[in-house]
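Limitations

Structures in this collection are predictions, not experimental determinations, and the ligand pose is part of the prediction. Treat each record accordingly. The example that follows, with flavin-adenine dinucleotide as the small molecule, is included so readers can see exactly what is and is not provided: the inputs are given verbatim, and the output is the predicted complex.
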Amino acid sequence: MSIIFEADVSVAPPQIRSPKNFEALLASVRQVSTEVAASHAADVDRQARFPAETLAALRKAHVLSAAVPATLGGAGCNLSELAQLCSTLAQACGSSAMVLAMHFIQVGCIARHGQDDDFFKGYLRDHVKHQYLLGSMTSEVGTYGDTRSSICSVERTADNFTLNKDATTGSYCGFADGILVTTRRDHDAAANDQVLVLVRREDCTLKQTTSWDTLGMRGTCSPGFRMESSGSIKQIIPGPYSDSSARTMVPYSHILWASLWWGIAADAVAKAASFVRGQARDKPGAIPPTAKRLAEVSMQLDAMKNNWQSAAQAFDAIAPDATSQDQLSSMAWALRMNNLKMSCSEAAPQIVHRALQIVGILGYKNDSPLSLGRHYRDALSASLMISNDRIAAKSASMLLVYKDVA
Ligand SMILES: Cc1cc2nc3c(=O)[nH]c(=O)nc-3n(C[C@H](O)[C@H](O)[C@H](O)COP(=O)(O)OP(=O)(O)OC[C@H]3O[C@@H](n4cnc5c(N)ncnc54)[C@H](O)[C@@H]3O)c2cc1C
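Predicted complex:
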């Protein structure tokens, strides 16, 4: 990887932390990207192994607590800043960036929905100290990609719960210190009457049920798992999952995923640019024919960046204001998030494809410095990761009643 594109963030930083923290974090992530993630990315991909070196380096630099509010010891990054961290890392290793993004999504849910709760405040302070890695189990055998319904239920006694789930996909769950699990509120609850439960690694057993030998995103290590867990009822995130999903999990997921898909595409375009410059050096005074293709693909890359950055800025403008939280549960916001996810997940593989047309056979070869195989395969996961068809069906039903489309 030769170039780290900067995804400038021009939004006002949140009130509760010093901007210096973010600059230091970003510098650390840049360093981890170029010095650690980039050199292990091909091996992580080849062996479908967890990017352990990169996560160790991120832990050491205290990047895993970037989403924890400064009042609890974290960096208090807003969503624009978290997205910039993910997009930077994605230019070196898509799998590592996806792990970081999924982790930030879970921390964001705890920080935003457990912020008034003593247990979760204590957990976040511990998280800053120990740099826990958090994974997610929303998908389930029988409900598949429908995150807003569950079959499993959380069973409560006076102080404790038990929760067993058969998950179809659980990224890096075998390496996580905690997992946020969606479940029905109790065994009489409807499928969509869900809560989110923090399951600690030491309180659960995980039996791997499927393999993870995929085209791309191989380093996320995301097979199916049968989980059996127990814990204190304090570990159930306050409020219904319908709230934490609409106000945090969906916007964090779609914005952070879009930012890292952009990072993968940006690295592919950087390789294409270096190829075109090489051609120009070989024939001084003439503009290579591939330069026009480069101009066209960089336009698409820019449009993609503007899409996730403006969504992140809009979220940051709404999010700190408790009275505006209803906007995040509105149909207009849900449609915006759906559009962002569908358009960026389609744009990423298209951009990589166009970069490949520029680079040609050197991009097609697996053993070339300009190889684009991993970028291509990683980007293909984007439209499946919560199926675009499923999202389009939800948008379609909203658009039947939503009139205010400007
Ligand atoms: C890299 C990666 C990491 C992941 N990590 C996790 C994780 O950590 N935790 C987790 O819980 N999950 C994770 N997932 C799972 C993911 O979020 C989805 O739940 C899963 O990919 C959906 O699986 P599916 O395609 O079999 O199911 P479905 O979404 O059910 O799709 C199956 C088929 O049905 C079609 N379809 C579905 N609904 C409709 C509709 N309404 N109209 C038309 N067609 C429709 C789809 O297009 C598709 O062809 C991960 C997925 C990937 C790719």
